[in-house]
């Protein structure tokens, strides 16, 4: 008998899960509230674990079509000096891509696996019996319901799974500018760069041969810094990068980060993943990777389920397997952001020693180095 999965949300986590379940024989329908599939104009980091998931579900080739393979992420202080060089441990990989390319690869993989993607359909309620209810008044029923509908998840909230949700004190302006590697300063080519000055940060991430993704992070109380018109204060804080800041002509979005913690990730035949379950700050570049990794692991745990009565136990085992790693990454991503609260001179002095410590390096890279689960 064909098992039926209903997924709320056609983002990174939802589409990866749809592809993985479809490849394991599940009948999958993905419901997206927007009238068309879309992504915001920004880049995203993918480390070993996320890249491995893309390979496993057959999304790698399309997602990586225009990707930037970085030699690492260099951390620079307020004077432009490198605190941490752009070096990767042996075997480590980090790739930066345009979100639209990643989304296209995941969409193709999900469609090839037989998943149906229904747009313009907003999920407003989920129930533990495997039911979804839509804003239109219609409903659907499956053997498993999966909420991948973001930090403000209706699935999570109507199931009563939320423990706490808070918005962080900082957020980021995000945009993409035109720039080639040849136009970058010679000591900046081939890698990504994060610059720190006071409580402001500037992340410079090439995402293909012609575009650079910029993330300008500051406290939400920094009214001048968070202005989407990009005031001259950013050029004052990061004068070496004025030539990129002057190229900002496209859309600029401001978002404050969310931190989501849940009592549990499932109730009966319904579960949540990605930002709906564990929204985090982006400081370790693991938001998308963890969402995809959890989706693949979920499919592996559900692969052998023939009777819907066995779904709740499979969901509980899946959470017990994956949650310790996710909680670890969420915790260390928040801690990493606290570097912004260290005075400039102190930061320049202590961060090179702190982040070069092997134990700390292991903590912050555990998610990137984690093994993906393809079967149980």
TrEMBL record:
Gene3D superfamilies: D-Amino Acid Oxidase, subunit A, domain 2, FAD/NAD(P)-binding domain. Pfam families: FAD_binding_3. Keywords: Monooxygenase, Oxidoreductase. The keyword Cell membrane does not apply. GO terms for molecular function: FAD binding; monooxygenase activity. Residues 4-327 form the FAD-binding domain. InterPro entries: FAD-bd, FAD-dep_Monooxygenase_BioMet, FAD/NAD-bd_sf. This is FAD-dependent monooxygenase. It comes from Parahaliea mediterranea. The lineage of its organism: Bacteria, Pseudomonadati, Pseudomonadota, Gammaproteobacteria, Cellvibrionales.
């Amino acid at each position: 008998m064909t098992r039926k999965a209903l997924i709320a949300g056609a983002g990174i986590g939802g589409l990866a899960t749809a592809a993985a379940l479809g490849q394991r024989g599940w009948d999958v329908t993905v419901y997206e509230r927007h009238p068309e599939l879309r992504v915001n104009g920004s880049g995203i980091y993918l480390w070993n674990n996320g890249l491995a998931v893309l390979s496993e579900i057959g999304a790698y080739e399309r997602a990586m079509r225009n990707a930037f393979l970085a030699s690492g992420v260099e951390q620079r202080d307020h004077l432009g000096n490198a605190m941490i060089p752009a070096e990767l441990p042996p075997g480590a990989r980090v790739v930066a891509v345009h979100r639209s390319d990643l989304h296209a690869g995941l969409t193709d993989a999900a469609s090839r696996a037989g998943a149906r993607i229904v747009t313009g359909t907003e999920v407003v309620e989920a129930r533990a019996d495997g039911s979804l209810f839509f804003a239109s008044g219609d409903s659907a029923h499956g053997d498993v319901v999966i909420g991948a509908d973001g930090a403000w998840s209706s699935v999570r909230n109507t199931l009563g799974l939320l423990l706490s949700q808070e918005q962080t004190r900082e957020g980021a302006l995000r945009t993409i500018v035109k720039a080639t590697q040849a136009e970058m300063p010679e000591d900046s080519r081939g890698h990504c760069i994060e610059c720190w000055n006071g409580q402001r940060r500037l992340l410079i991430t090439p995402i293909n041969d012609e575009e650079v993704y910029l993330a300008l992070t500051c406290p939400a109380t920094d009214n001048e810094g968070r202005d989407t018109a990009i005031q001259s204060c950013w050029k004052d804080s990061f004068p070496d990068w004025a030539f990129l800041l002057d190229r900002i002509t496209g859309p600029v979005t401001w978002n404050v980060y969310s931190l989501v913690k849940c009592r549990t990730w499932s109730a009966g035949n319904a579960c949540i993943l990605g930002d709906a379950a564990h929204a985090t700050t982006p400081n370790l570049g693991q938001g998308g990777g963890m969402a995809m990794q959890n989706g693949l692991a979920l499919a592996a745990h559900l692969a052998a389920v023939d009777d819907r009565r066995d779904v709740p136990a499979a969901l509980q085992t899946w959470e017990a397997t994956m949650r310790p790693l996710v909680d670890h990454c969420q915790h260390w991503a928040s801690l990493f952001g606290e570097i912004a609260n260290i005075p400039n001179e102190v930061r320049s002095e202590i961060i090179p020693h702190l982040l070069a410590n092997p134990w700390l390096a292991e903590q912050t890279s555990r998610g990137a180095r984690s093994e993906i689960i393809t079967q149980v």
